[in-house]
Design a protein that fits this description.
Length: about 170
Amino acid sequence: QEQPPRPRSHTVTTTSSSFTANLSASSSTLAYDREFLRTVPGLLMVTEIVLGLLVWTLIAGTEYFLYPAFGWVMFVAVFYWVLTVFFLIIYMTMTYTRIPQVPWTMVGLCFNGSAFVLYLIAAIVDASSVTKGLDNHNYNSWAASSFFAFVVTSCYAGNTYFSFISWRSRTLQ
């Protein structure tokens, strides 16, 4: 007593949820700002990323964990390296234009100002902790990291200046 096969319908019904419709609409508006890397703040940001990476890799290749001062320098270097990469992605993808509720000029000023101050402290701590008597094997790495920490500090100082100019022009409007 087999049942005869039912006839198949050739009609296909497609439904779309509002989530996928919103997702596809929002992802299509994601922009890419190629010109940002040609600006002085963009170049400073790339320099901060490259030299900041150099600072913490020069220290990470040593026994820095035996000396608390170098632990502080590592914390500052890695923390601001990650945040700078994050902000570079935000600026390159122009995400800041899609979230107008955030006062981006103030956020940039606070970020760059805090990076300048903490990197300056870390660079001074790094430089004052480098002695041949401490560890002769790691001396060159620590000395190089100290030099590059001061260079990164000057880059953050420059970006703080440009962030201040941008913030000041927004508040005057």
